[in-house]
Each structure stands twice: as structure tokens, then as C-alpha cells.
Amino acid sequence: MAAKLFSACFGRKGCRKDSSDNAAKVHTANAQDPASGEEQRKGGSVLVELFTSQGCATSPEAELLISRLGRGELPDDAPPVIILAYHVEYWDYLGWKDPFGSMLWTARQKAYVEALQQDTIYTPQVVVQGRAECFGTNEEALLAEISKAQQFSGPTMQ
């Protein structure tokens, strides 16, 4: 059940807008679908992490882009993605306290900044597969990082 739900929502055959029709069509993934096995052999999903804050003026645009990405509005040759969004709290001093912000997510982002040898911490920042980063509103850079990200096979679900 979990594998079917996961592939229906995040897999390439899952919730995506059909370009041949203006209305959004939902394709259901079949657990016996040979494409699912083929995708598992090619590689797993790509992890995309967004660091955002309600106190950041450009974060809503990045959240919209990530939302579209999560709905499967990707190029057909793009790998499936797993999306995580973290609200950081370092903008809270400006007067708008983000109720979802956490120092744990700020610490996670700081660890990425150090690991990726960046000069500064900022929002909205997207980290792809823990190995590359880009500005959260730059769709072209985000899709390029996703397409060239190394994929790791996930566990086989039966």
C-alpha cells in the first residue's frame, strides 16, 4: 500500500498535469506497472530540500516552484523527486516570527553551507541530493541540478 501511494504521488506516473489537455488529469500508478521496476533499476529519487522562512520576501515564489515540482510538473525525462521544506528561524528578529521556524532546520542549513563551502546562509535556498545548491526561485538552475544529480537506488518494496 505504501509503495503504491508513494509512486502515485511522487513517481513519474503519479500526479502530473497532462499537457495535451488544459484540465489536470491524474494518472494512477499500478503496482505491477513494468515502468516502476524499470525506474528502480535506473536509480532512485532525487532529494530536494528547500530552506525557507515567512520573514523572507522571495520565499513564497520558491515555495510555489517547489510545489509545482512536487505535483510532477517536470520535464518528462526528469527523475522522480522527494521534497522536504524547512522553515528557518534566523529571520525572526525582523519582526515576523515564523511559527514553523526551528533552530534545528537552521542548524541543518548551516551544515550544508559548510559542507558545500558556501560563503553565506540565505533563503530561499534549495539543496539537491545534499551535494549541490541553488537559489530557490531559479527554476532553470534547479532543474539542471536535479537532472545531473547522482541517483541512489532505494529499497525494493514488495
Quick overview:
Helices cover 34% and strands 14% of the residues. The protein has 158 residues and is α+β, with helices and mostly antiparallel strands.
What does this entry look like structurally?
It is a single chain. This protein has 158 residues and is of the alpha+beta class. It has a domain at 46-148: Glutaredoxin, CATH 3.40.30. Helices cover 34% and strands 14% of the residues. It is built from five helices and four strands, in the order ααβαβαββα. Strands 2-1-3-4 form a four-stranded mixed beta sheet, sandwiched between helices. α3 links the parallel β1 and β2 (81-87). It is globular, with a radius of gyration of 17 Å. The chain starts with a helix and ends in a 10-residue tail after the last helix. Residues 1-37 have low confidence and may be disordered.
Name the structural class: alpha+beta
Q: What is the fold-level CATH name, i.e. the topology of the domain at 46-148?
A: Glutaredoxin
Total number of β-strand segments?
4
State the oligomer. Answer: single chain
What's the level 1 CATH class of the domain at 46-148? Alpha Beta
Structural Rg? 17 Å
What is the distance, rounded to the nearest whole angstrom, between the alpha carbons of the first and last residues? 9 Å
Shape: globular
CATH architecture of the domain at 46-148: 3-Layer(aba) Sandwich
Arithmetic mean of pLDDT:
75
Strand content: 5-15%
Count of runs of 4 or more consecutive helical residues: 5
Largest sheet: 4 strands, mixed
Helix content: 25-40%
The neighbouring-strand order within the major sheet is 2-1-3-4
What is the CATH superfamily classification of the domain at 46-148? Glutaredoxin
In terms of per-residue confidence, which ranges show pLDDT below 50 for 5 or more consecutive residues?
1-37
Element pattern in H and E: HHEHEHEEH
